Amino acid sequence: MARTLTVGAAQLGPIQRSDTRKQVVRRLIELLREAHARNCKLVVYPELALTTFFPRWMMEGQAEVDAFFERAMPNADVQPLFDEARRLGIGFHLGYAELAEQEGRTRRFNTAILVDPNGDFVGKYRKIHLPGHAEYEPQRPFQHLEKRYFEVGDLGWPVWRAFGGIVGMCICNDRRWPETFRVMGLKGVELVVCGFNTPEFNASMVEPGHHRMMHHFLSVQSGAYQNGTWVVAVAKAGMEEGCMLHGGTCVAAPSGELVAVASTLGDELLAYTMDLDATAPIKNTIFNFARHRRVEHYGIIVEQTGAIPPP
Amino acid sequence: MARTLTVGAAQLGPIQRSDTRKQVVRRLIELLREAHARNCKLVVYPELALTTFFPRWMMEGQAEVDAFFERAMPNADVQPLFDEARRLGIGFHLGYAELAEQEGRTRRFNTAILVDPNGDFVGKYRKIHLPGHAEYEPQRPFQHLEKRYFEVGDLGWPVWRAFGGIVGMCICNDRRWPETFRVMGLKGVELVVCGFNTPEFNASMVEPGHHRMMHHFLSVQSGAYQNGTWVVAVAKAGMEEGCMLHGGTCVAAPSGELVAVASTLGDELLAYTMDLDATAPIKNTIFNFARHRRVEHYGIIVEQTGAIPPP
């Protein structure tokens, strides 16, 4: 019997700063209901799905920053999503800014959770590859202060048996790094879910605009192919506080092929039925790691962080 | 002053078993002369460029196998290529089967060399990711016995200062593995040259035919982008001994974009002028390894060879 799973990639249009969490949760629930009508068992929401992408602003006051963080999950604003998902028997993946009291101090992470159709927590992931910068950069039209507002995730890339397969998570910039997918690939991952907020304009360099979407697809497709896994990547999209997010919510098959792509920059549910067993042909042949990987030649990948050109 | 380099990707059409090395070297020299006329300073030939792709056959006798190997490089058959390249002031990359007397025994590698415009050796690479299998598999229309006829390369992935930049090599199946590019990326590589012989039909699994070329491009483009390096990948192409090689000689920019692709399945010179400084914007921003890599979470990539799913 094929291990099929219908996933709803729940792209969000922009969230403005004035939008309340209650308003956003209503949109999430709307997409959840559409997903239910379309037979989905798992709904994937974007990174930082409860608020606008606040790292675009330099904020001096910690209280102003912390207003974008969740101190508990669920909390009163988000509880209706948890309730409705359980009622409908749908699991979900949700990204949010997490404020945690941990090891005697306040810690802040760019976090995602996976919740099963019974409403139970499957697992949590905290973003490891934080892009951007930590200090104000006046030449940028928008800041990208993830390195200021978040700590590097401390949970690695776990995978879990859930939704009939082996599921892992990553967030936004993580998808550009082959290390992200390889770590989960080595744990047999069959489905990677990934939310993102990617600006259309890259303020750190001059590049043709179409490269942005190409880089997104290239990263997702190569991560899928090179590990024989499904990838569902879900955007926050559209014009958010004057900053255009490029969208491109998509599903990549274990072959690396793009098999579904959203067509709008707004709230849009992309429902796709995948066969988790379609991971096996790639995992057992071209990317049979046990047969083909040569770790004795990979040491530098872990031993060395930055590039060191020859003298 | 821009560091421009004009590279000739010298795709070869098929080499049949009955073709002699002398005949093949004449074709290589023909392409070299065209490259010279088109201002190339480096010519990249395919993997195993002197003979047919012999791992498609099961051969019991070692003498029969060894007839496809070179015991010295250059040797009498190949010397005319070295001579003409030096005369024209062009460097080259050449793949061949290498038989080496080393550590008191006979060793066989799938090898490539890099020779500078003065005719001096820059370096040697021995293929690490050998695809295929070691034992005869009767269900295959063609064998892929690289694991039988070659040892795993023992030189790692060095890079060299050459041709005005930092150059590295890999061979065929190596390009599918992000580890290959990352190891060289960590050494600051600006140009990776890669020869390949890739059959259109994958005998190890059932897959749509168009996936083969997609996988090739996906691997090359992601390796380029994720390390901010130029990649020149050069095919042996066309119908060789009844086995179709899919071609697809190409140049990928450090942006990941395909900027040149061969249009035939025969001997074809693809000349492309690249700016080696175009690697810097990617290396200094999105893939600034020192700023963004988190090696503390990558350990499993080196510690574990095969995939181990959760219990």
Describe the structure.
The structure is a homodimer of 311-residue chains. The first copy, chain A, is an alpha/beta fold and 311 residues long. The first copy, chain A, has one domain: 4-Layer Sandwich (Nitrilase/N-carbamoyl-D-aminoacid amidohydrolase), CATH 3.60.110.10. Chain A has helices at 21-37, 62-66, 79-88, 146-149, 178-185, 210-225, 280-284, 289-292, 300-303, and strands at 4-11, 42-44, 91-102, 105-115, 121-126, 159-162, 165-171, 191-197, 230-240, 243-246, 250-252, 258-261, 268-275. In chain A, a hairpin with a 2-residue loop joins strand 3 and strand 4. The mean pLDDT of chain A is 97.
Quickly list its features.
homodimer; about 300 residues; alpha/beta; Nitrilase/N-carbamoyl-D-aminoacid amidohydrolase; 13 strands
Summarize the structure.
Helices cover 23% and strands 28% of the residues of chain A. Chain A has 311 residues and is of the alpha/beta class.
Chain-wise SSE layout:
2 copies of one chain form a homodimer.
Chain A lengths: L3 E8 L9 H17 L4 E3 L17 H5 L12 H10 L2 E12 L2 E11 L5 E6 L19 H4 L9 E4 L2 E7 L6 H8 L5 E7 L12 H16 L4 E11 L2 E4 L3 E3 L5 E4 L6 E8 L4 H5 L4 H4 L7 H4 L8
Parallel strand pairs in A: 1-2, 2-3, 7-8, 8-9
Antiparallel strand pairs in A: 1-13, 3-4, 4-5, 6-7, 9-10, 9-11, 11-12
Please tell me what the overall shape of chain A is: globular
N-to-C CA distance of chain A: 58 Å
Write the element-wise H/E pattern of chain A from the N-terminal end onward.
Answer: EHEHHEEEHEEHEHEEEEEHHH
Helix share bin of chain A: 10-25%
Q: Give me the Rg of chain A, rounded.
A: 19 Å
Largest sheet of chain A: 7 strands, mixed
**Number of DSSP E strands of chain A:** 13
**What is the CATH-assigned architecture of chain A?**
4-Layer Sandwich
Proportion of strand residues of chain A: 25-35%
Number of domains of chain A: 1
CATH topology of chain A: Nitrilase/N-carbamoyl-D-aminoacid amidohydrolase
What ranges of chain A have pLDDT less than 50 throughout 5 or more consecutive residues?
none
Quaternary status of these chains?
homodimer
Which two chains have the most extensive interface, and how many residues on each? A-B, 70 and 70 residues
